[in-house]
Amino acid sequence: MSDWDPDMELDCTAVLADVWLMLDGECDEATRARLQHHMEHCSPCIEAYGIEEKIKGLLSRKCGGDRAPESLRERLTVELRRAFIATETSVETSD
Question: Rounded mean pLDDT of 41-57?
């Protein structure tokens, strides 16, 4: 049984920061369910997910399926989250 609470809303920044974890199969089922539920009801997030999925596929094809070193993967995850938070912050402050 899942810990997913349908009343718990995620903001788009959190969803987009974790979309790579979902694409890589690195999140638990409860997190996957929350992310998928959000994206089913948020067209900007599902669009961003589709773009991220295409990027991941392209990288996989062009890099021959080699797995990046864990240290690089961790740095990229941190930088992707920072980029989404910075983008969201910029959007909020311009209103």
Answer: 84
